[in-house]
Write a structure and sequence with these properties.
This protein is an alpha/beta fold. It contains twelve helices and 20 strands. It has three domains: 162 residues, Adenylosuccinate Synthetase, Chain A, domain 1 (3-Layer(aba) Sandwich); 91 residues, Adenylosuccinate Synthetase, subunit A, domain 2 (Orthogonal Bundle), CATH 1.10.300.10; 156 residues, Alpha-Beta Complex (Adenylosuccinate Synthetase, Chain A, domain 3). Helix 2 packs across helix 7, helix 4 crosses helix 5 and helix 4 packs parallel to helix 6. Bound molecules: guanosine-5'-diphosphate, 6-O-phosphoryl inosine monophosphate and magnesium ion. The site of guanosine-5'-diphosphate (GDP) has 20 residues, from helix 1 and strand 3.
Length: 420
């Protein structure tokens, strides 16, 4: 049996915290897509750590953590992260497994990502520059090197062949930077990875399932960044939605049970692209400041706005969300009024769907307003004790989305969560 935790917005919904919270109920925690563009923040014994490649179950004794075939893996980030985790007293070697089919992010992928972004004007994606797009391009273009290839004698030769191909592309962008230092750390990290538990991920996970183990699939990014269903072209390069679990781990759809959709009580986006409910005023600024909305991976300020019901409803549909987990509700503690977007006005007409090419149409968000609760909710542990204004807000979302908000996160700490 496989349950999924994934983001319903444009990423950074608090998936890391939520996976860490639920991890004790599972035997295996597995990443199924994305790469080091992800930044999942956890607080373990009051200490903050941001994970980019390692699943967020790593701090739980005895739990298996798997980096699935759908992930693109940067050996340099992995090595650095293993060091950080080890410094927190975790013997990652015991419980961390990597699928041999996961594609490697090469130094040239990072260079191409950078060169490609530099070549664009206002159409910049705002990529994290981690090489994600170029690595997935090599995968679907049937090039690329996979984790299993580390063990091949021809690994370096194959790398050199690809590097020559990539150099042509870099030349076409007139990219002049010397990447030899990146290559040096890459090969150093490749050596480090040779000791890892590299497994056939699909047999590994299906064997666990058939033995009755419980699997938690950890999504990265968010549904509105999905390469098919997100705000294309301002998206990432993988399927971030629940369907990505099947292709990214090698599990059949009927094995998936709960789909936990994580959404902030408001909305953020980092990088370029449409964001209908964005607040460019002092309320947006207040949310950014109170919520410390700065990217976990790049440190960039996150754009802030009201919760977008239209986009959330779409994300619930695409993912088959069974329960919603609302995070960062405490960030709204001081607001007089809150708003939920419950429609888009496009060319004078009210719509309740996400349009094709959101970036090419003028969307005026329609809102329903709610009174704020104006009190500190961060130490509340029971639903009954939450302010009535907050319950009104949540109940409206339940009705609008037709999927229940089952958990309300009211602080970054492991145990700051209220069950509805
Ligand atoms: P992820 O990428 O979805 O894992 O999210 P990030 O870690 O990038 O960003 C979420 C941020 O919000 C992190 O700094 C978390 O520690 C923090 N966070 C998560 N849940 C809550 C919450 O309920 N309240 C507050 N105040 N912070 C939270
Ligand atoms: P987590 O898992 C927020 C955004 C980037 C950019 C676009 C494409 O922490 O929620 P990419 O590097 O993937 O080519 O960038 O996607 N992006 C994220 N935004 N959270 C993330 O991950 C993101 N990963 C990528 O800002 O707009
Ligand atoms: Mg993040």
């Amino acid at each position: 049996m496989v349950d999924v935790i994934l983001g319903l917005q444009w990423g950074d919904e608090g998936k890391g915290k939520i996976v860490d919270y639920f991890a004790s109920n599972y035997d295996v925690i597995a990443r199924f897509q994305g790469g080091p563009n992800a930044g999942h923040t956890l607080y373990v014994d009051g200490k903050k750590i941001v994970l980019h490649q390692i699943p967020s179950g790593i701090f739980h004794e005895g739990k298996t953590n798997l980096i699935g075939n759908g992930v693109v893996l940067d050996p340099v980030t992995l090595k650095r992260e293993c060091g950080n985790v080890e410094a927190m007293g975790i013997d990652y070697k015991k419980n961390l497994y990597i699928s041999e089919r996961a594609h490697l992010i090469l130094p040239t992928h990072r260079a191409i990502d950078k060169a490609s972004e530099l070549s664009k004007g206002i159409e910049k994606i705002g990529s994290t520059l981690k090489g994600i797009g170029p690595a997935y391009m090599d995968k679907t273009g049937r090039n690329g090197l996979r984790v299993g290839n580390l063990l091949d004698k021809s690994f370096t030769t194959e790398y050199i062949k690809l590097r020559l191909k990539h150099q042509k592309l870099l030349d076409s962008f007139n990219f002049q930077e010397d990447i030899s230092a990146w290559e040096e750390e890459f090969f150093d990290a490749i050596d480090f990875m040779r000791d890892f538990k590299i497994v056939n991920g699909e047999y590994f996970i299906n064997d666990k399932i058939s033995k009755g183990n419980r699997i938690l699939a950890e999504g990265a990014q968010g549904s509105m960044l999905d390469v098919d269903f997100g705000t294309f072209p301002f998206v990432t390069s993988s399927n971030t939605i629940s369907a990505g679990v099947c292709t990214g781990l090698g599990v059949a759809p009927q094995k998936i049970k709960e789909v936990f959709g994580v959404s902030k009580a408001y909305c953020t986006r980092v990088g370029s692209g449409p964001f209908p409910t964005e607040l460019l005023d002092e309320t947006g600024e207040l949310i950014r400041k109170t919520g410390n909305e700065f990217g976990s991976t790049t440190g960039r300020p996150r754009r802030c706005g009201w919760i977008d019901g239209v986009a959330l409803q779409f994300a619930c549909m695409i993912n088959g969300v069974t329960q919603i987990i609302m995070t960062k509700s405490d960030i709204l503690d001081n607001l007089d009024t809150l708003k939920v977007c419950n429609g888009y006005k496009i060319n004078g007409e009210e719509k309740s769907y996400v349009p094709f090419q959101m970036n090419k149409v003028q969307i005026e968000p329609l809102y329903k307003s709610f009174d704020g609760w104006k009190q500190d909710i961060s130490s509340i542990g029971n639903y009954a004790d939450l302010p009535v204004q907050m319950k009104n807000y949540i109940e409206y979302l339940n009705g609008y989305l037709k999927v229940p908000v089952k958990y309300i996160s009211n602080g970054p700490g492991r145990d700051q969560i209220v069950v509805a």
